Amino acid sequence: MDLTYTPQERAFRAEVRAWMEANVPAAPLPSFDASRAGFEAHRAWERTLNAGRWGMVTWPQAYGGRGLDLVRWLIFEEEYWRAGAPLRVNQNGIFLLGPTLMEFGTEAQKARFLPAMASGAEIWAQAWSEPQAGSDLAAVRAAARRDGADYVLSGHKIWSSRAVFADWAFGLFRSDPASERHRGLSLILFPLDAPGVRVQPIAQIDGETGFAEILLEDVRVPAFNRLGGDGEGWRICMATAGFERGLMLRSPARYQVAAARLVALYRANRETCGPETRAAVLQAVMDADAYALSIYATASRLDAGGAIGAEASTNKIFWSEMDIALHRTALSILGARAELVRDAPAAGADAGWLDGYFFSLAGPIYAGSNEIQKNIIAERMLGLPR
Questions:
Q1: What dotted CATH number matches 250-381?
Q2: Global pTM value
Q3: Alpha-carbon distances, residue 150 vs 155, 219, 224 (angstroms)
Q4: 10 Å Cβ neighbour count for 218?
Q5: CA torsion sign, 236 to 122 to 132 to 384?
Q6: Which CATH architecture best describes the domain 125-232?
Q7: How far from 63 is each of 55, 97, 101, 102, 113, CA to CA, in Å?
């Protein structure tokens, strides 16, 4: 891997930076989990990105992208986070389902779903977990019964990100009723306004509704909405999980920007900080940079025709634990001020650290709990017995 940027990559960075400076909203958008208005404000931002052809730069131009390599996507992400641009409300679509469609979808499916995803016209939720199947994805019970040219979906999904206001969801269903564990599963796309779909919001600790449970009762969708072959859902979902854990969902720029903010916070409060705090700040910076180098190596390997394997689990454990440690360090520097919520008049420049800490605590759980990831590492990377 050559760590020197080419003239073309430097020119691309300059183009991204100029566009962001001209288009990123001056004031933060309202939360997309708190209200429909905030959600739609972020959808409008997705449309703005699409108008500049920044919806997803690695996708082919025909689907709303620029056909660029993963290294330029990482450059784009660095400039995106540097500019303080809004969070991507369609991250489940563009970072998870989108790459999966590229790999496993038919040309007709790509043409149907990808342009609407890139433009923000259709926002996606993930519908994998169930009350009896959280991190154990192979234990799903929701059923997809084939009926002619359709599937009839029934079951109960929970902890579905963005499902409260989203338009579509991608879910894992048992299409072979006689199957067990990871066999006989299919990945099916379904609209959240279809007859028989009921979405119930789940309030988070901050009162916002970032999750929902989805109840499906005889929901009819065309077989066209099945991604891959019947019964191939487990293999396809493992590819999606690789994108979620190892590359797309949590780009390094997110943590490098947070580490830079942590350094600024430390410098502003240096007189009240001890050597252990300084060491924790330095560790956060080193971890963020190490993660970035690791992801650049992964991107280079993928651009050369490689694939993401079980090592995605090591990435997931690393970034989730790094995020918690970084935010705990920030709260220790703030002391009593760490209790100020985002909208408190006295929070000032310190606003956001508490929210960031709350969110970081979910990191070891979503994208597959870290306990499950350690099992994957032990069995598939180290060859240890089950």
A1: 1.20.140.10
A2: 0.85
A3: 16, 10, 8
A4: 11
A5: positive
A6: Beta Barrel (2.40)
A7: 10, 14, 11, 10, 9
Distance in angstroms between the alpha carbons of the first and the last residue of the chain:
35
Of 194, 218, 191, 199, the residue nearest 112 (C-alpha):
191
pLDDT in tens, 34-59: 899 999 999 999 999 999 999 899 99
Q: What is the pLDDT of residues 206-258, one digit of tens each?
A: 778 888 999 999 999 999 999 999 988 888 887 776 655 556 667 899 999 99
What are the residue numbers of the active site? 244
Q: How many residues does the chain have?
A: 386
Is the Cα dihedral 45, 77, 324, 273 positive or negative? negative
Residue type, 208: E
Here the tokens at position 140 are 């799903």
Domain extent listing, the chain: 7-89, 125-232, 250-381
Contact 174, 187 (CB under 8 A): no
Q: Which two tokens stand for residue 179?
A: 């199957």
Same fold, 125-232 and 250-381: no
